[in-house]
Amino acid sequence: MRIIIKAFHELTAEELYQILKLRADVFVVEQECIYPDCDGKDRNAYHLYVEKNGIIQGYLRILEKGQTFDTVAIGRVVVRSESRGSGLARHMMKKALVFAADYLHERVVKIAAQEYLTEFYVSLGFERISEPYLEDGIPHVDMEYHWLSSSGVSPAHEDSSVSAGNSEIL
């Protein structure tokens, strides 16, 4: 498997198609949530995805501060159903946090997490900063990550090297 981070203009048509299809398959079809996925933010985002044998297994986008929150944001975190439970989402999130620190020079990252995933994000060092609210009919909470959080959790403690472009993962 390879983990890849690209700006929008660097994505091929095939990569973009697979990303949008994966997001639609999970968020619209599986979660039965009709929402405007193409929200205009993709053009200014960094797209992190994991590819295996030409198929995208997982994806997230990294938004620079000011696009969603007053800090860098991570969103649209999704893993293909057959790749769930493998630690892929955790690995992608760690890589995204390192990218935010090393390439965007930001130490604070916010997310709008689906509420049922709160404990997963807490295990990565995120802290809940809002009460639950509905976004597109699904309960969400805002969460914030500080590079060296009070819990001491940091992706730097594990294999966290990342580079723009292609990088190999386990």
How would you characterize this protein structure?
The chain is of the alpha+beta class and 170 residues long. Helix content is 23%, strand content 34%. The chain contains 3 helices and 9 strands, in the order βαβββαβαββββ. It has helices at 13-30, 88-102, 118-123; strands at residues 2-7, 45-52, 55-63, 72-79, 108-114, 126-128, 133-135, 138-146, 165-168. Strands 1, 2, 3, 4, 5, 6, 7, 8 and 9 form a 9-stranded mixed beta sheet that branches. Strand 3 and strand 4 form a beta hairpin. The protein is globular. The relative contact order is 0.17.
List keywords for this structure.
170 residues, alpha+beta, nine-stranded mixed sheet, 3 helices, globular
SSE order: EHEEEHEHEEEE
CA(first)-CA(last) distance? 7 Å
Backbone structural class: alpha+beta
Helix content: 10-25%
Q: For the CA atoms, what is the radius of gyration? A: 15 Å
What is shown here, in short?
With 170 residues, the chain is of the alpha+beta class.
How are the elements arranged and paired?
Blueprint: E1 2-7, H1 13-30, E2 45-52, E3 55-63, E4 72-79, H2 88-102, E5 108-114, H3 118-123, E6 126-128, E7 133-135, E8 138-146, E9 165-168
Parallel strand pairs: 4-5
Antiparallel strand pairs: 1-2, 1-9, 2-3, 3-4, 5-8, 6-8, 7-8
